[in-house]
């Protein structure tokens, strides 16, 4: 790969700028553990249901990035799973039951704003030195029919065991006893993503290093965010480019679960971040099917992550992929400080210092481009060959 040294150095500098400090993850962990403790207090209305509070999304996967605008804050997505079943309660019952405890927690913590009920979850906003938007999604263990469906679809049993049913106010049977509840599996998805992180053995290697450094006492104590594998870094970089590209149209941007899923499927174990980003961008479009499901959930093949795509949103995805390929390619072609700094600002909204730019360019000025960019149509995948 031509000019790999320059783009690798540049990407490392960008990751340093967009990554969040470990203390932010620590605060997120402290917050959801605090909520879990509240749900288990003697007076809790759900204590007898053994509530389990755990993160989902980017905090669980270790792919959080700093927001484009400082006042945006961070989305801390949580699940509160309780041991109940659909035979004696409705989605509405569960939503309100957990909602009462979320409201109680908010009051006990002295939050200025009360939680708000959303379509599927309860949202609490709070801010100390970090601004969090905390979404709490109620759930119960998946019913046997759903589990059997997943097993028949050849989903790994460990992932199936994590499947849940959730609440949704827009469901016609929301207030009725019914076996048909919306489905989800964030913990199963995290297990699948961690398997993809370890293609090439990079997650295993990171865990070994962390154990040898005595940073953690055992493997099961090591959170995903501490591993910092190439796949996690790729997802962070792709999300940052997407956020900058759609900063004026956040509702039109490709959703994170699509970028994360396609990147994970396209990743082939590359250790170098430049090779990983080039490989993922060249292949991820190949995992968008022409027929439904266009982008199936890897832990629930019946779910299509593109279920809300219309012509505009699909075009937005292909346009983003084309521009991402061009943006990352240009990082390998820049030959001056000004060009490199401007590219980082325009495509990633990150301020690369002059010293950092000089360090990157020191051994690469005048070198040929890392990639040859192939134009991508608005509706079909194409290759990005290194």
Automatic annotation (TrEMBL):
GO terms for biological process: defense response to virus; nucleotide metabolic process. It comes from Oceanipulchritudo coccoides. Transmembrane segments: none annotated. Residues 53-136 form the Cyclic GMP-AMP synthase DncV-like nucleotidyltransferase domain. InterPro entries: DncV-like_NTFase, NT_2-5OAS_ClassI-CCAase. This is Cyclic GMP-AMP synthase. It comes from the Bacteria. CDD domains: NT_2-5OAS_ClassI-CCAase. Keywords: Antiviral defense, ATP-binding, Magnesium, Metal-binding, Nucleotide metabolism, Nucleotide-binding, Nucleotidyltransferase, Transferase. It catalyses: GTP + ATP = 3',3'-cGAMP + 2 diphosphate. One of its GO terms (molecular function) is ATP binding. The keyword Transferase applies.
């Amino acid at each position: 790969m031509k000019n790999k040294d320059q783009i690798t150095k540049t990407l490392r500098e960008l990751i340093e700028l967009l990554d969040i400090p470990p203390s932010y993850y620590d605060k997120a962990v402290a917050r959801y553990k605090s909520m879990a403790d509240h749900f288990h207090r003697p007076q809790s209305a759900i204590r007898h249901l053994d509530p389990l509070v755990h993160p989902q999304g980017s905090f669980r996967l270790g792919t959080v990035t700093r927001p484009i605008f400082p006042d945006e804050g961070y989305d801390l997505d949580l699940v509160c799973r309780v041991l109940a079943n659909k035979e004696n309660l409705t989605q509405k019952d569960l939503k309100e039951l957990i909602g009462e405890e979320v409201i109680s927690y908010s009051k006990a913590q002295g939050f200025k704003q009360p939680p708000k009920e959303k379509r599927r979850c309860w949202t609490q906003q709070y801010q100390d030195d970090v601004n969090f938007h905390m979404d709490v999604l109620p759930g119960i263990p998946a019913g046997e029919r759903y589990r059997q469906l997943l097993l028949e679809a050849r989903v790994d049993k460990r992932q199936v065991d994590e499947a849940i049913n959730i609440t949704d106010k827009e469901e016609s049977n929301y207030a009725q006893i019914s076996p048909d509840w919306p489905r989800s599996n964030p913990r199963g998805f995290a297990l699948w993503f961690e398997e993809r992180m370890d293609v090439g053995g990079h997650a295993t290697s990171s865990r070994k290093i962390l154990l040898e450094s005595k940073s953690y006492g055992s493997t099961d104590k090591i959170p995903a965010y501490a591993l910092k594998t190439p796949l996690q870094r790729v997802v962070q970089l792709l999300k940052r480019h997407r956020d900058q590209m759609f900063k004026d149209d956040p509702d039109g941007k490709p959703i994170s679960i699509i970028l994360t899923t396609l990147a994970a499927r396209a990743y082939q174990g590359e250790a170098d971040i430049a090779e990983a980003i080039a490989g993922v961008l060249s292949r991820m479009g190949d995992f968008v099917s022409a027929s439904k499901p266009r982008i199936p959930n890897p832990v629930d093949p019946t779910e299509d992550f593109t279920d809300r795509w219309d012509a505009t949103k699909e075009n937005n995805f292909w346009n983003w992929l084309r521009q991402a390929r061009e943006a990352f390619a240009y990082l390998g072609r820049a030959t001056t400080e000004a060009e490199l700094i401007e590219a980082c600002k325009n495509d990633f909204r990150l301020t690369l210092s002059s010293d950092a730019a000089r360090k990157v360019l020191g051994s690469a000025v005048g070198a040929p481009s890392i990639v040859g960019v192939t134009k991508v149509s608005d509706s079909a995948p194409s290759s990005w060959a290194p």
